[in-house]
Design a protein that fits this description.
Elements (H helix, E strand, L loop, with lengths): L1 E10 L2 E10 L10 E6 L9 E3 L1 H9 L3 E2 L1 H10 L4 H26 L1
Parallel strand pairs: 1-5
Antiparallel strand pairs: 1-2, 2-3, 3-4
Length: 108
């Protein structure tokens, strides 16, 4: 399965990320299929991210799955449904709460 995720570059305390389409079994900074853009967390708010929207839409249309961080970036860019993302986050929180409740009731 193809994933859209970031690979870390830069130097110590100065991170810089490339946004890539990669096979999900590939190492974080390993070989990629296509470089789609970049993300600089230290830049000004409006200049932090740049990617090719057409290629991103292409990869999403053929079934590529974005990572959790990429989903947040795509929501800001308008390429991923914000309501769907909010629901995913809420489901994850509910699952953690349910698991925590199960652990505490098992100890009692």
């Amino acid at each position: 399965m193809v994933r859209i995720r970031m690979s870390r570059h830069g130097r110590t305390h100065k991170p810089f990320y490339r946004i890539n389409a990669v096979d999900q079994r590939t190492k974080r900074d390993g070989a990629f299929i296509e470089n789609l853009g970049w993300f600089d967390p230290l830049a000004e708010e409006g200049k932090q991210v740049s990617f090719d929207a057409e290629r991103m839409k292409h990869w999403l249309s053929v079934g590529a799955q974005p990572s959790e961080t990429m989903k947040d970036i795509l929501v800001k860019a308008g390429l991923y449904d914000a309501a769907k993302r909010k629901k995913e986050i809420q489901m994850r929180i509910d699952a953690k709460m349910k698991a925590a409740a199960g652990v505490t009731s098992a100890k009692a």
